[in-house]
Write a structure and sequence with these properties.
- The protein is an alpha/beta fold.
- It is 42% helix and 15% strand.
- It has helices at residues 2-27, 33-51, 76-84, 102-108, 121-134, 161-167, 197-206, 227-242, and strands at residues 54-58, 66-70, 88-93, 112-114, 138-141, 171-179, 211-216.
- Strands 1-7-6-2-5-3-4 form a seven-stranded mixed beta sheet, sandwiched between helices.
- Helix 1 (2-27) packs antiparallel against helix 2 (33-51) and helix 1 packs parallel to helix 4 (102-108).
Length: 258
């Protein structure tokens, strides 16, 4: 039965992705910013529904220039955040560009890609993010730098927070929690180790009752802040919202040089 459910959902996902590609290729050139954001939000919500993930949103997201900081669990994180904040531009690892179909779509909505293997690339992305924030945009980052298992919040890299400090815009933490029936976390959604995107998509499509809760927490001022101290505060905010313990102090993990 689960296999049939999974196949049905994958068919819906494929059709929805194809529709999204058509919208980006044909409609985006003639749409203004608001029109594009409306379609991004609609598409992200639709893809979550198609694959069987229920979205619950809590809290209020700031309007205007803002750096969103969220914990990282799955490739679904981008969809969940875009569903509640379609204006956000993401900073994502360059590998995402090579995802089948989704990579092209993610790039088409203004994602900023970072080469994590190149330490100097962090400085380039910090300047790009700062410029976007100074122009009034919202940018979203995952300061853990990689996905966790959904139960332990890993240390935060502080480098990209420098963009908000330089632009003097608020930083808003967002807590993402995935659950399944009878569990306070979702082992199905956890995207770790050798798990490929294809395997992850299939596992989620076959699962029952997966829910993602997106909780927008109070924003923190960044002007003149120490980026490591700010990273620790944001880390603690999200950990408290999720009632998790940190695996180590947020500043203990070495940062890529900038």
């Amino acid at each position: 039965m689960r296999v049939l459910v999974g196949l049905w959902r994958l068919l819906r996902v494929a059709l929805h992705v194809a529709h999204g590609m058509a919208v980006v290729a044909v409609r985006f050139p003639s749409l203004d910013t608001v029109g594009r954001q409306q379609r991004i939000g609609w598409w992200a919500n639709g893809l979550l529904r198609a694959i069987g993930v229920h979205l619950v949103a809590e809290g209020d997201l700031r309007v205007g220039a803002n750096l969103l900081v969220a914990n990282h669990v799955s490739w679904l994180d981008i969809l969940a955040l875009h569903a509640v904040c379609p204006r956000a531009r993401f900073v994502s690892k360059s590998d995402v560009r090579h995802w089948p179909l989704l990579g092209w779509l993610i790039g088409a909505v203004g994602t900023l890609f970072i080469e994590r293997e190149r330490k100097r690339d962090a400085l380039r992305v910090v300047h790009q993010v700062a410029a976007a924030l100074q122009s009034g945009e919202t940018v979203a980052v995952f300061p853990e730098g990689t996905t966790g298992d959904g139960r332990v919040l890993m240390p935060f890299h502080a480098n990209l927070l420098q963009a908000a400090i330089a632009a003097e815009v608020p930083v808003q933490p967002v807590a993402l929690r995935y659950t399944e029936p009878g569990l306070d976390w979702s082992p199905t959604v956890s995207w770790l180790g050798a798990t490929t995107l294809v395997h992850s998509v299939w596992a989620i499509a076959c699962a029952q009752g997966v829910q993602v809760q997106v909780s927008a927490l109070p924003a923190r001022a960044s002007a003149h802040a120490d980026r490591r101290a700010l990273a620790q505060r944001l880390h603690d905010d999200i950990a408290q919202a999720l009632q998790w313990s940190a695996v180590a102090p947020a500043t203990a993990q070495a940062e890529p040089a900038t």
